[in-house]
Amino acid sequence: MSTIRQDDFIQSIFEALQYISYYHPPDFIQAMHGAYLREENQAAKDAIAQILINSRLCAEGHRPICQDTGIVTVFLKIGMKVQWQADLSVVAMINEGVRRAYMHPDNVLRASLLSDPAGKRLNTGDNTPAVIHMEVVPGEKLEIDIAAKGGGSEAKAKFAMLNPSDDIADWVLKTVPTMGAGWCPPGILGIGIGGTAEKAMLLAKQACMESIDIQELKTRGAHTALEVLRLELFEKVNALGIGAQGLGGLTTVLDIKIKDYPTHAANKPVAIIPNCAATRHVHFVLDGTGAAELPAPRLEDWPEITWDPKTSARRVDLDTLTQDTIAHWKPGETLLLSGTLLTGRDAAHKRLVDRIEKGEGLPAHVDFTGKFIYYVGPVDPVRDEVVGPAGPTTATRMDKFTEKLLAETGLLGMIGKAERGPAAIDAIKKHRVVYLMAVGGAAYLVSRAIRKARVVAFEDLGMEAIHEFVVEDMPVTVAVDVRGESVHRTGPEIWRAKIGKIAVIEP
What we know:
Elements: E1 3-5, H1 6-22, H2 26-38, H3 42-61, E2 71-79, E3 83-85, H4 90-102, E4 114-115, E5 122-123, E6 131-137, E7 142-149, H5 151-154, E8 158-162, H6 168-175, E9 187-194, H7 197-208, H8 214-220, H9 225-238, E10 253-261, E11 268-275, E12 281-286, E13 314-317, H10 323-326, E14 334-343, H11 346-357, E15 372-374, H12 399-409, E16 413-416, H13 422-431, E17 434-437, H14 443-447, E18 450-457, E19 466-480, H15 487-499
Parallel strand pairs: 1-3, 2-6, 9-10, 13-14, 14-15, 15-16, 16-17
Antiparallel strand pairs: 2-7, 4-5, 7-12, 8-11, 9-11, 14-19, 17-19, 18-19
């Protein structure tokens, strides 16, 4: 019989969340490096390089891999012989560990959780509460799987209640292209099969937290029906040509992980939850001897990647741009941005459009004329930082605001993550502006290009406030040009044809 002490449990949750904020799992680094070495599309190879360089910088500097430091998900297996020496409930202890981790002054993590989700959507301020799943099992130990799941990949979760005769692989191959690139591929697809609707989703989330071992499986061969399905989907999803960040390429997924559960004879529930390029999870066990000990990986575990866009990229002065200048930019071209830009994401966009529609105009100190807006919610700075990790958020969430802002504010363009939808592309083409893409999963690397930062409007929105950034050599890719041509459409088409193994099954 083991006794788990309150302080040890809270400390373990705190340390685990700090740990996964800046250390990628070693299996993920190895798989990403393999993808980097194999990749033939230079744009995708550059994106993977940025993710790997960012990962090493975060390991060295103990700062978040991604500005979206996630919603905390905890799976507990509590041994039936475990005793607790605690005044707080298990849930309260976990949330105290989360609170300490996200407010740690040496490595502040972004608070992204909002209470009253269908109403006022107010930030809880400390990223609590966590999402907790508990199971009582034989034994005298406490097993913990803990993850910090980003909103961009979580938003791409999919579920279907298939008919028993339906083919799972067909559904997955129809569904993955509809997910776009907002989940920051390459990553892992967690798939849950069976049970009930909610059980399938839970299985998919648990599958995301398993280790990458697809290459070992390919070497030894499949022994079960699920392993056969994993290998089939790994080959066929990569043959879709979506590639890193949706730019087209050889690697869209690093692994396919599947968990299943018995289901009703009339049902075949199937769920997909992707894990992004900021894959953050860890497993540990408490046996009553103290807090968890999480070994720091060696820096030698990270590959030495050289990526220097300065030799080939177009340098851009953001403070002197005109529509004539941006008209010459081509989809897929790498730019290095220097000068002033403004930020804004979901909540700020809604407020801006509301003000415009009410005839109130833009807030003081906010002038978008001839400027770019960067879709970002940065982490708070620590020590001598100008700003914390500040990678892009998924751009499609701003699509419904795009026409109004372009028509009313004088914006020259936008910077975000992944593709734009048809409405946004139509607005871009109509107003002859551009959309630029920054790499999701390289937030700390991006922040190093930011020389000055200040809040200029909507300070009450926290990380969603409008900031003014002064940047130097911030790397981006032209994703949609003034003619409305999108690299997220052409890139996967080109690479799907090159791979030549399967065609996309139209949804």
